[in-house]
Amino acid sequence: MNKMPLPNKAGEPEFKLKLEPNDKISLKFKAGEETTVDLKITNPLKDRQSFKVKCTDNEIFRVRPPLGFVKPNESTTVKITLKAKSLPDPQRHFFAIYHVACETKATTARACWTSETKPEGVIRLQAAIEETEKKEDGEKKEDKKEDEKKEDEKKDEKKDEKKEEEKKEEKKEDEKK
């Protein structure tokens, strides 16, 4: 699994904003449940920036907000949610984050992103999807714990029986004397 951003395509400009995390987006997968992580975008530049976050599959990932502004020396947080019915291919998915300087007169981030807009920075972060423990595995662990408990109880019973036999033998020896 890559622990750094995926390489840019030829001719794509280097990403100039700061991201946390800056190497990958780590998501835990559990069937039927949503997982959400935060992506913090910080603008160290002197101009207001508009960002756009795209994902490889809108059916399993939700990015909120997918577009927005970051003022100079400020940060914003984007929420990335994974909701999939089955474990997605952990090597296939990534998030592409783009940014462009956007004039202060633009009232919406969408207005900054036209078909002619060329991003001033691009980065792709791998979606590191990790499956959490399955219920079946949890049930197996519970069964194993119960089995171990029963074995311990049997050992204790045998010890108690042995002690009783020793007591009986001591009584018999005492009676002989």
TrEMBL record:
Keywords: Cytoplasm, Cytoskeleton. Residues 128-177 are annotated as: Disordered. The keyword DNA repair does not apply. Pfam families: Motile_Sperm (PF00635). The keyword Zinc-finger does not apply. Residues 131-177 have a biased composition (Basic and acidic residues). Residues 16-131 form the MSP domain. Central component in molecular interactions underlying sperm crawling. Forms an extensive filament system that extends from sperm villipoda, along the leading edge of the pseudopod. This is Major sperm protein. It comes from Caenorhabditis angaria.
